[in-house]
Amino acid sequence: MIATIRNHFVVSEGRFGRVLVSFMALGFLALVAAGIAAGWATGRNEAHTRSVNHTYEVELAIGTARRLIEQGEASRRGYLLTGNREYRDAYDRWTVALPDALHRMQLLTRDNPRQVDTLIQLHRDIAALLAQRTRTIAMVDAGQDDAAVASFRGETSVRRMMGIRSAFDRMATEERRLLARRDEAQRASVRAFYAILALAAVLLILVAIASLLTVMRYTRDLAASRDDLRDFNDRLEETVHERTADLSRANEEIQRFAYIVSHDLRSPLVNVMGFTAELAAATAPLGELLDRAEAQCPQIVGEEARLAVREDLPEAIGFIRTSTQKMDRLINAILKLSREGRRVITPEPIDVAAVVDTIAGSMRHLLDERGVALDVARPVPGLVTDRVAIEQILSNLIENATKYLQPGRPGEITVSGEERRDRVIVAVADNGRGIAAADHQRIFDLFRRSGTQDQPGEGIGLAHVRALAYRLGGTIDVDSELGRGSTFRLNLPKTYAQQDSQP
C-alpha cells in the first residue's frame, strides 16, 4: 500500500507540474502576444501621428504659399490703382517670401508623385504670373500708370489665378485623401490591437480558470491522499505494535527456552563430567594393577591391554574432558546471553570517557603486558543509557583489540565519539590485524570467529555486544581491512527510550 500511495503521489505531482507548466507557457505566450500587439499598435500610432503631422505641415505649406500669392496679387492691384508705395513694399515682402514657401511644399511632397506633377504645373503658372506682375510693377515705377492699367486689364491673370487656386485645391484634396486613408488604416490597426488584447485576455482567463481547477483538483487529491496516508499510518502503527508485541513474546519465549535448554543440558553434562572424573580416578588403580601384573606374571599381560590402560584410556578420558569443558563453556555463554536478555535496563547519565578510563585501569596489566596504548579522543558525548551494558560492550571491544594485534607493530587503540542529531556514535579503532570483508557481518553471529584461531574464545563476545546494542536501541558495525586495523562503531540513542517489550 505504501508503494501504491507513493506511485499515486508521484504520478499526480508529475502530471500536476506538467499541466501547470503548460498553462504557464500558454499564459506567457498570451502575454507575449499582447506585448507584441501593443508594440505593433504603438508603432502604427507613431507612424500615423507622423503621417498626420506631415499632412498638416503640407496643408500649412499649401495655405502659406496660397496666401502669399493672394496677398501679392492684392498688393499689386492696390499699387496699380493708387500708386501708393506701401502697396509696393508689401508686394515685395510677399514676393520675397514666396520661393521659400514653394520650396518647403516641394520638400514635403516629393514622396507623392501626384503632388509632384501638380507642383510642377503650379511652378510654371506662378512663374508666368510673377513675370506679368513684374512688368506691370515696372510700368508704374516708370510713371506709365495708364499703360500699366491697360496692360492689367488685357492680361489673363484671372484665368491664371484660377488655375493656381485649382492646383492648390487639388494638392489640399490629395492630402485630405491621404489623411482619410491613414485614418482608416489607424482605425484598422486599433481594431486589430483590441482584438489581439481581447484574445489574449480570453486566453489568460481560460488559463487562470484551468489552472485554478487543476490546483483545486490536485488539492482535493492531495487531501484525499493525505487522509489515506493518515489512515494507513494509523493501521501501520497498530500493526507495528501488534508485531512488536508478538516479537517481544517470541523473544521472551526464546530466552526462556534457551535458559531451560541450557539448564537441562547441564544435568547430563554434570553427570558426564562426574563419571569422567571417576574414570580418570580409576585409571590410577588400573595402572598399578598393570604394573604388578607385569612384574609378577608378565606372560598374562598382553600388548593390547597394556596400550588400553596406559594410552587409549587416558587419551579418551582427556578428549571427553576437553569436549565437556567446551560444552560447559558454550552452555554458560548461552545462559549468560539469556540472563542478559532478561535483565532490566536501567538508564542513567553516563560519561563514556570515564567508563573507558575505568576499563583501562582494570586492564592495565594486560595492556602493559602486550604493549598496547589506549587513548581517548576527548570530548566524548555523554549518554543516558544502561551503565552495565555500556561497560560490557566497551570492555569486549577493547579486549578484542588487545588480542588481535598485528605482529611487529605496537598496538594502538583509540576511543572517540561524536553526536549526530539525537544519536551518539562511539568508535573503537585499532591498528591490529584487521578483518576480511567477507567476515564483517558473520563475526557478530554466535560462535563465529574470523581469521587465524590463535586466541582463546568461543565466538560469543561480539554476538553478546550486538545483542546488548540492540537492547539499548542501537546498532554496531565494523569497518576493517586486513593488515590495517579495524574500527567498530556503536550507534546509540543519546537518551535511551523505554521499550514496550522491556520486562
UniProtKB/TrEMBL annotation:
One BP term from GO: osmosensory signaling via phosphorelay pathway
Domain Histidine kinase: 260-496
Record keywords: Kinase, Membrane, Phosphoprotein, Transferase, Transmembrane, Transmembrane helix
Gene Ontology MF: a single term: phosphorelay response regulator activity
Enzyme Commission numbers on file: 2.7.13.3
CDD domains for this protein: HisKA, HK9-like_sensor
Catalyses which reaction(s): ATP + protein L-histidine = ADP + protein N-phospho-L-histidine
Transmembrane segments: 20-41, 192-216
Protein name per UniProt: histidine kinase
